[in-house]
Design brief:
This protein is an alpha+beta fold. The protein is built from 7 helices and 14 strands. It has a single domain, classed as Jelly Rolls. The strands form 3 sheets. An 8-stranded mixed beta sheet has the order 1-2-10-7-12-5-4-3. The protein has a 4-stranded antiparallel beta sheet with strand order 6-11-8-9, with no helix packed on it. Helix 2 crosses helix 5 and helix 3 crosses helix 5. It binds 2-oxoglutaric acid and fe (ii) ion.
Length: about 300
């Protein structure tokens, strides 16, 4: 069961919100977030720009291919990434990734994951995406402050660990199903980061597989985020919170979604949080953990 949590309770019912969120992240690791802090007009704008970039001619998108850089930014065609490493199928989705933005003379450029974003030639795309990146990161930090309370940590425990994040904004485009055997929009996977904030256009397709259950549709609640725990936060909480497999079936009609993968700063040490018991995993830098997961996903399969 995926609960709907109302973010406006942050202001008037924080204990109740904390209890409900704490339950959701231990149960399926998924919840829907109504009345989020990200302004509606920004969510509308990000969808408009998502449509604009995927509607560009193939040749324009190819110029900003994710394969141009080692920093996981830009356009990914079907086959550049397939999320279920165990299956031969190639995901039908196209992607567009935007990372933490740096100026061309930033001294951090060249460090692990620190590259320049690749931008399409679309007038308001860059400004919209950068504003959305910041707003989504702020929403995620708000959620992390609730989770910190839930874990009996100071509410601002995570804030300094996420102030130069590895977070990635990812736009997704799924073409309509063609009906060929074993077609998949996005293969079964768990997310790698701390928390994912997902907006969809309402076209069905997203499913989760709770530990004790079969694949289940994630309901669409207009204007609500689908929020889920990623593997990094599961590890950080010593498996108290759960990261749950999910996938996207080939949709009937074209489907678009906007995912924000909230990640910590590169040097943040991910090690069992205080009060979570005997550590099950060795400590690891957030960047090294992410690298290990991306290396597996981007080992290309033959596009078929
Ligand atoms: O497009 C969606 O609804 C989900 C995408 C997803 O799970 C992902 O990119 O990690
Ligand atoms: Fe995912």
């Amino acid at each position: 069961m995926i609960p709907v949590l109302d973010w406006s309770r942050f202001a008037h019912d924080l204990p109740g919100l904390t209890a409900d969120m704490g339950r959701a992240v231990r149960d399926t690791g998924f919840f829907l977030l109504a009345n989020p802090s990200v302004p509606q007009d920004l969510r509308t704008a990000v969808f408009a720009q998502t449509g604009a970039v995927f509607d560009l001619p193939e040749a324009d998108k190819q110029k900003i291919s994710i394969l141009n850089t080692p920093h996981f930014r830009g356009w990914g065609k079907p086959g550049d990434e397939s999320l279920d490493e165990t299956q031969p199928e190639v995901d039908t989705k196209q992607t567009f990734n935007i990372g933490y933005d740096l100026a061309e003379d930033d001294p951090r450029l060249g460090q692990q994951f620190r590259g320049l974003n690749q931008w399409p030639d679309l007038p308001s795309f860059r400004d919209t995406m950068l504003a959305y990146y910041d707003a989504a990161q702020a929403q995620a930090l708000g959620i992390l402050s609730v989770l910190a309370r839930d874990l009996d940590l100071p509410p601002d425990h995570f804030a300094p660990l996420f102030d130069e994040p590895l977070s990635a904004l990812r736009l997704l485009h799924y073409p309509p199903a063609t009906g060929v055997a074993n077609e998949i929009g996005a293969g079964a996977h768990t997310d790698y980061g701390a928390i994912t904030l997902l907006l969809t256009d309402g076209e069905p397709g997203l499913q989760v597989k709770p530990r004790a259950g079969d694949w289940t549709d994630v309901p669409h609640v207009p204007n609500a985020y689908v929020v889920n725990i990623g593997d990094c936060l599961m590890r950080w909480t010593n498996d108290i919170y759960v990261s749950t497999p999910h996938r996207v079936l080939p949709p009937k009609r074209q489907r678009r979604s906007v995912a924000f993968f909230t990640e910590a700063n590169p040097d943040t040490l991910v090690e069992a949080l205080p009060g979570t018991g005997t550590p099950k995993y060795p400590a690891i830098r957030a960047a090294d953990y992410l690298q290990s997961r991306l290396d597996a996903t981007y080992a290309p399969k033959e596009a078929g």
